[in-house]
Every structure is written in structure tokens, then in C-alpha cells.
Amino acid sequence: MTEAKPVIVFDSGVGGLSVHRAIRERLPDLPVLYVADDAAFPYGDWEEGALVDHVVALMADLVAAHDPAAVVIACNTASTLVLPPLRARFDIPFVGTVPAVKPAAERTRTGVIAVLATPGTMRRDYTRELIRTYAKDCHVRLVGAPDLAAIAEAHMRGEPVDEAAVRAQIEPCFIEVDGARTDIVVLGCTHYPFLRTIFERVAPWPVTWIDPAAAIARRLEAVLGAGREGGTAPSFAVFTSGRRPPPRLERVLARLGLPVGNLTGAARTPK
Ligand code: DGL
């Protein structure tokens, strides 16, 4: 059997694993190189021009080393900014992850929705344009949570979570406008689905949480098309810092079919 080209699933950290999980369910045999740019985490704090330059340069190295069939930018903070320069520079399909404003506007019953994201995604023109285009008849509360992605990273490493801190970060999503309360919260950062059980526990009232991962997996499948080769290329995860993840996270990665590998030229071979 020939080695199929891998698909790169890319995030600033382990949040993109929520997207990888959905891709795995839909395309179990797809070789995936999961790239966590942990050396640069969190993207939510970066100045826009610097983040574009950083991601394009890193992608140039990854594309040269791995010749991917497609790349999934499993990060809202990056996708809302770098998809146009990536598509202009590389002749491969890029699938992005952007806040699921449209499905939220279609599903809300109260007309009050919240978008929970990083401060970077909250500031983006792209996000504001999504709201203007798809949710102009809704009241939308856009919340930039400064600490949630880092809390999710710590949770994935097996560290305890301060639930009061989580509650403080999500609380601004819960509003009442003319007697109507928020009924949908868009998870606008790929790290957040890993905190969802805690969100449900500490939320002031029950809401529907929208996670776009399954839709991204469907989009990837459509982009790859029917002619996709089967293959035996290994799937694995790399961390740009070169640090080995703690044992609990390594077990999570192993369960997701992603042993930890190297970023260097030898990256096609897992450690
Ligand atoms: N997982 C990323 C996202 O979807 C962002 C986390 C960060 O680096 O700030 O936005």
C-alpha cells in the first residue's frame, strides 16, 4: 500500500484535539500530523501582524517537510486572520475553524446568543463581520475570555481546575435583554469543548453549547474528495517547543491515535 499524504491539524496548543477527535470519527484511516504550536501559545494575546508572519513561516516549514494533502487550522484565533495569506501562498486546501455564528442564529429561540472566544478572536473584523452577516436579527454578546484556553491546557495536562475562575470567565455570556435570556453559547475556541462539562456545571442557567468540530470534519471530508488514497503513513503529534507532554496528556494523545513525534526532518517517524 502506498503512503497516503497526511493531513496537518494545526493549533496553538491541544485545543485542536477537539477537532481532531471529530475528524477521527469521520475519517478513521486518515493519516494526521497534529501540530501544537505550544512554543507560541497563547495566540489570543498576539498582535495581528506578528501572528500572521509567525503562522505563515511555520506553515512553510511544515508544508516543505510533510507535503500534506490538506491543512486544518483548528484554531479560531488563527483562522479569523491567517486563512487568506495561507491560501495565497500555498497551493493546498486549507480548512478553517471560525465561530459558529450562523448555526447559533438559526437555532436560537430567544434571539439572545453569546460567542465565547479568545480576546484575539473577539477583536477580529472577521468575527464582527460574521455577526453582521448572519446574526443581524439577534442580540449577540461577544465575550473575549483571557484565561480559558490556558485553563483548558492545564486541564488536559491533568491539573486541577478552579471552577470559580471558569465561572467568572463564562458569566458575561449570560445576559437578559428585554426579558429574553441567552439560550446559545458558541464555543469560539477549540480549547473550550474540553471544559464543557465544567461549563455546564457552573453556568448560571442551562444553554446549548455549539461546538463546530463535526462540521469541520465534514468539510475536510468534502475537500479531500472521493479519490482519497488509503495508506499506511503514521499519525502522530508534534509540539513546536520540543518539550515532551506530561504523562496524562501523552495518554490522551495515545488514545486519540497520536503518539508524540519530532518536528525535525525525521518527523514522519514517531518517536
Ligand atoms: N485554540 C485556539 C482557538 O481556537 C486559541 C487558543 C490560544 O492560543 O489563545 O482560538
From TrEMBL:
Name of the protein in question: Glutamate racemase
Similarity section: Belongs to the aspartate/glutamate racemases family.
Keywords: Cell shape, Cell wall biogenesis/degradation, Isomerase, Peptidoglycan synthesis
GO molecular function: glutamate racemase activity
Location of the active site: C75, C189
Keyword Cell wall biogenesis/degradation among UniProt keywords: yes
Cell wall biogenesis/degradation among keywords: yes
Database matches in InterPro entries: Asp/Glu/hydantoin_racemase, Asp/Glu_race, Asp/Glu_racemase_AS_1, Asp/Glu_racemase_AS_2, Glu_race
Residues that bind substrate: D11, S12, Y43, G44, N76, T77, T190, H191
Catalysed reactions, semicolon-separated: L-glutamate = D-glutamate
EC assignment: 5.1.1.3
Biological process (GO), any one: regulation of cell shape
PANTHER family: GLUTAMATE RACEMASE
Organism of origin: Propylenella binzhouense
Pathway: Cell wall biogenesis; peptidoglycan biosynthesis
Purpose: Provides the (R)-glutamate required for cell wall biosynthesis.
